[in-house]
Specification:
The chain is mostly beta strands. The protein has one domain. The protein is 10% helix and 19% strand. The strands form six sheets. It has a four-stranded mixed sheet, with no helix packed on it. Strands 11-15-14-17 form a four-stranded mixed sheet. Strands 4-9-8 form a three-stranded mixed sheet, with no helix packed on it.
């Protein structure tokens, strides 16, 4: 994506002229809504809530799984590991702030609007809003009262300036279409998905039920170029002709021996994989992404460890059909954000 040397702001969502983190930074409720990753960001009928436990596997399911096995399975030495780093913040009464686009921001894929920065918040992998470790530094803020989910890749507030990579703003008042924000359009995730609804949380796992699909990641050398719906985008991948596309939907086999897993938390996540499955969203080595427990009631310690699902191999999964794949062109045709 090319750089843009302007500061962006769009009045329809409100905008402030300087970086001024707002109130309600404890991550608490926003007008009674719970932003802590219960999965209920979007209305019923959204694709990530579909029960696929009885869906017939895709005709090429076995071939895709064979390709993944031949390429090495999951990343991280074929270990299904869990990353607990992404945070979801409640906007509270924080007003959207302008940001200066970086090389990771580009039109028309990314949204030129302000983003709320609640006081006491942080980006992925950092204690605050500064991206000092040069990671993905996702910034996710849920403004329930305004029906907006803000998701930014490579956010960084340093020296009083808010720098932003690609920002995707989602209208949470309605179910997202399977064409997302537009065909060939990315988001804060390479597949063009919203991130927050696919994260599972300590509160969900402690309650014993996850009621939505899960986000997962594969190394790009194990993924075929292109994407299948509901993905709308991909990246420069080098997998073979049988490899999965971006957006592939995997489901844990129904007869997997859940009792063999080492914790109740692991069994809860595995049951969600059997019922709702998991969608391939990005490139990398850590297969699963859970939400940070910094602002949840339950905590991950003693509930679920990063390697509690390491026994799950690619052969334990089936591919759920999506329809025809789309070749990747990067020629984004955006669906306008409703006002």
């Amino acid at each position: 994506m090319r750089a843009f040397l302007l500061i962006v702001c769009l009045g329809v969502v409100g905008c402030s002229g300087s970086v001024d983190p707002g109130q309600n930074g404890d991550g608490g409720d926003d007008d009674g809504a719970n932003p802590r990753g219960s999965g209920a960001y979007f209305p019923a009928g959204s694709w990530f809530y579909d029960d696929v436990s009885a869906v017939t596997p895709a005709a090429n399911s076995a071939a895709v799984i064979r390709s993944l096995r031949a390429a090495g399975g999951w990343g991280n030495g074929d270990k299904m590991q869990i990353d607990f780093g992404i945070e979801v913040l409640a906007a509270g009464d924080a007003e959207p702030q302008t940001f200066e686009p970086t090389d990771d921001f580009g039109l028309p894929d990314c949204d030129p609007v302000g983003v709320p920065l609640p006081a006491g918040g942080n980006v992925e992998g950092e204690p605050g809003y500064e991206c000092s470790g040069d990671g993905d530094c996702h910034l996710i803020v849920f403004a329930a009262a305004k029906h907006r989910l803000y998701e930014m890749w490579r956010a960084n507030v340093t020296g009083g300036t808010f720098f932003g990579g690609c920002l995707a703003v989602w209208d949470t008042s309605k179910a997202p279409p399977r064409t997302g924000r537009g065909v060939q359009c990315t988001s804060a995730d390479a597949a063009g998905f919203p991130i927050a609804p696919l994260l599972f949380t300590a509160d969900e796992v402690a309650a014993g039920e996850i009621k939505h699909a899960i986000r997962f990641i594969l190394p790009n050398d194990r993924v075929r170029r292109g994407f299948v719906p509901p993905a709308t985008h991909g990246s420069s991948t080098t997998g073979d002709s049988e490899a999965p596309y971006y957006g592939v939907h995997l489901r844990l086999r129904a007869d997997y021996p859940l009792a063999s897993l080492p914790s109740d938390g692991a069994r809860t996540v595995a049951r969600a994989m059997q019922t709702y499955g998991m969608y391939h969203a990005d490139g990398g080595n850590i297969a699963l992404t859970a939400q940070s427990d910094q602002r949840t009631t339950a905590k991950w310690d003693g509930l679920l460890g990063p390697r509690d699902l390491a026994a799950l191999k690619v052969e334990d999964f089936q591919v759920i059909g999506h329809g025809e794949h789309t070749e990747l062109t990067f020629d984004c045709t955006r669906t306008p954000l409703s006002q």
